[in-house]
Amino acid sequence: MQVCPLDFRYGREAMKLVFDEHRRLQHMLDVEAALAQAHADVGNISAEDARIITEKASTDFVKLDRVREIEKNTNHDIMAMVKALTEQCGPSGDFIHLGSTSNDIVDTVMALQFKNALEIIEDDLILLQNSIADLAEKHKTTVMVGRTHGQFAVPLTFGMKMAVYAREIQRHLDRLREARPRVCVGKMSGAVGTGAALGIHATEIQEKVMEKLGLGVEEASLQLVGRDRYVEFVALLANIASSLEKFGVEIRNLQRSEIGEVAEAFDAEKQVGSSTMAHKRNPITCENVCSLAKVVRGFMIPTYENVPLWHERDLTNSAAERFTIPHTCILVDDMLVKMSRVFSNLVVFPDRMQANIEASKGLIMAESVMMAMVGKGIGRQEAHEIMRMISLKAADSGTHLRDQMISDESISQLFKPEEIDALLDPKSYIGRAVEIVDKTLKDIR
Description:
- By secondary structure, the protein is mainly alpha-helical.
- It has helices at residues 13-18, 21-41, 47-56, 64-74, 77-89, 102-138, 158-183, 202-213, 227-254, 284-298, 300-305, 318-344, 350-359, 366-375, 380-397, 401-407, 409-412, 417-423, 433-444; strands spanning 143-148, 151-157, 185-186, 216-217, 262-263, 347-348.
- It is 63% helix and 5% strand.
């Protein structure tokens, strides 16, 4: 029986494999092998015992079914794994899990999963950034109307809008790379973090284990790796999800029938937009991403709740993390790939952008005229009031701003008709838009 949508609807195999039960078991065995090797390095056990444990610490020998069978009796998943590995190692099995506690294994495995997940997410972000950057380059001079409060504002270019998004992705990449050494951290320090059971070489053993696994060391812990690290990890993914929702919302709005400036790709040969409205072409991928972003952000609350535990630890974080960590990683990976596909195949309609500019009847250029008036010696506040009144007259009468400007004496005395035409040309009022695109592309590429 399949219940969770991750089983049949959402997520890619690459990320699901990071949290696959067989892979998790192998990670646990890897940690046990690294621990045995570290003990051998400091002389606590023989090199031969470490060799045998390392050889048998494989799902080729330790089967998931056997671990599950043992767990039915132990009611303890880590001890079940330890017993299953011990069965394979003969006398050397006496040295498995020596000096460690369950969460030395669990949290170090989680760090390995974080490490693998972040590698995938980083690749996803680069893929998305490239698809957005291609649009920025292609449309760096494609003029469109900007909108604030859902209303016409002033011109910009579609390429600049994409450059802004590319910069946002770059910040997520920076955050990911900065967070990696803080979140990919394991521990091997025993029941309450003192390392007492590991003996006089406790510090060296912990460092050697993490070095062998390619992880950072939790410098001071109780029984758990600090869950503030987990908050940072999930917050990073929730932040990324929020950006993806932001991008999706913008595409959905620009695809509105009355705007129609961009659209998700639509397979006219096979794709169905609606079960009843045959004409529909809906932005379903962006809507899907926006929907999943809400779920991802929802995982932040239990992640924060897992920080305050009783004394050196309790078990109230464990069940929650079995849901929050895999689901967050799988969903964000899914969302990133989907949005990369959306941007790579996005249909842009420059003619519709121009039509919407013309629909403003020049009103979006009021600021341009105001600034030119300042250049003619008119005070900024006075110029603003003059253009405010002229704009209101144009809007109320449904006439073009140009007509109202020519008929207004305060304007006609300052500008010739051809100067007014130049001031009302949106292409002449995009400021640094092209420069911003070029600088962005140079920096990120």
